[in-house]
Amino acid sequence: MDSEERRKEVLRVLKNSKKPVKGTELAKKMGVSRQVIVQDIAILRASGSDIVATPQGYIIFGNEEGKKMIKTIVCKHSGCSEIEDELYTIVDAGGKVLDVIVEHPLYGEIKSPLMISSRLEVDEFIKNLKDTKAEPLSSLTDGVHIHSIEIDDEKTFEKIVQKLKNKKYLISE
C-alpha cells in the first residue's frame, strides 16, 4: 500500500470509529511506525480533515450515532484529587467530558480535548497527570476552567449540575 492509499485507509478507519483510535493501533493496522501515522495525520489535517488528537487517540468529531446535546459548565477546583472527583462526578452522572478550556489573560482561550466518558478514562488521565508531573490547564487560572460536556438529555445535564453544585465545584452566576 502506498502512502496515499494508507492515508485514505487511516481516514476510513477514523470515520468509521465511534471512539478515539490510538496512533499505535493505526500503525499496527497499516504496518508502519507510529511516527509515519503522526505524519499522515498531519497531512490529512492540512488537506482539510477534521482529525482531533485526544489523550485516548485520534477521532473525527461527529461520528457518534444519535443526537447528543453539548453543554458547557464553569468549574473551580484545587489539586489533583478534586480534578479526579470532579471528572468522576460528571461521568458517573452520564456525561462525557469533551474538553477543558481556560481563559488566559495573555493568550485568550486555551482549549484541550479530553474525551473522558468513564471512570477508567478518568483514572488514565489522572495517572498521566501524575506520571508526567505536568500542571493541568486550570493551574493557569487558579483552578477556574470550562468543560464542554456531551449528554443524552437535559435531565442528565441537570443531574450533573446539581451534583457539581453540591460538591462546590460549579461556579454559577
Please describe the topology of this protein.
Elements: H1 3-16, H2 23-30, H3 34-46, E1 51-54, E2 57-60, E3 69-76, H4 80-92, E4 96-104, E5 108-116, H5 119-132, E6 144-151, H6 154-166
Antiparallel strand pairs: 1-2, 3-6, 4-5, 4-6
Helix pairs in contact: 1-3, 2-3, 4-5
Structural write-up:
The chain is of the alpha+beta class and about 170 residues long. It has helices spanning about 5-15, 25-30, 35-45, 80-90, 120-130, 155-165; strands at about 50-55, 55-60, 70-75, 95-105, 110-115, 145-150. Strands 3-6-4-5 form a four-stranded antiparallel beta sheet. It has a two-stranded antiparallel sheet with strand order 1-2. Helix 1 packs across helix 3 (about 35-45) and helix 4 (about 80-90) packs antiparallel against helix 5. The longest helix is centred in the N-terminal third of the chain and has 14 residues, at about 5-15. The model has no long low-confidence stretch (mean pLDDT about 90).
Tags for this entry?
173 residues, alpha+beta, two-stranded antiparallel ribbon, 6 helices, 6 strands, elongated
Strand elements, count: 6
Tally of separate helices: 6
The average pLDDT is 90
SSE order, as H and E? HHHEEEHEEHEH
Broad shape: elongated
* Main sheet makeup: 4 strands, antiparallel
Q: Quickly give the structural class.
A: alpha+beta
Q: Helicity range of the residues?
A: 40-55%
Distance between the termini: 56 Å
What Rg, in angstroms, do the CA atoms define? Answer: 18 Å
| Poorly predicted ranges | none
The portion of residues forming beta strands comes to: 15-25%
| Order of adjacent strands in the largest pleated sheet | 3-6-4-5
